[in-house]
Amino acid sequence: MDLHSLMAAIDRSQAMIEFDLEGNILRANTNFLDCVGYRLDEVQGRHHRMFCTPEHASSVEYATFWEKLGKGAFDEGQYKRLGKNGREIWLQATYNPVFDEQGNPFKVVKFATDVTQQRKTNAEYEGKVAAIDRSFAEHHRVRPERPRAQRQRKLPQGAGLSSG
């Protein structure tokens, strides 16, 4: 398989975006743009932080993330990102440094799959399980108690007791 065919296959099935080592967007494919709701001219040349919450974009973790990529280490996982108009998106993705002929990283390619709906479904399921657990615990904690007189028989004073 030639490189062009391989890239075409990936481009058809994956959301893909390319960055320089500082995180500036070089290009993005249609799958990625559809996922985030932007056109290429709205993202090209802008920084990756446009897809992050301001808190995350200003964090030490985020700076370390780009530092690591710049040194040639890849990163993978599920990432919370923001689409157009602040819409929350979850991506299962890999950030892959691309190396030149001398072995130096010169850009980063991200391959991603939108897992937003799966996360929502899982959260709904987990919410239902938690509600059942709470209901079960409450049911067994607050059982109606029988009146004390029914639980304990009153014995006449001294009945059944021996002194010797």
Automatic annotation (TrEMBL):
Biased composition (Basic and acidic residues): 136-148
SUPFAM superfamilies: PYP-like sensor domain (PAS domain) (SSF55785)
Region (Disordered): 136-164
Domain PAC, residue spans: 75-127
NCBIfam families associated with the record: sensory_box
Name of this chain's protein: Methyl-accepting chemotaxis transducer/sensory box protein
Lineage: Bacteria, Pseudomonadati, Pseudomonadota, Gammaproteobacteria, Pseudomonadales
Leader peptide range in chain numbering: none
One Pfam family named in its UniProt record: PAS_3
Domain of life according to the entry: Bacteria
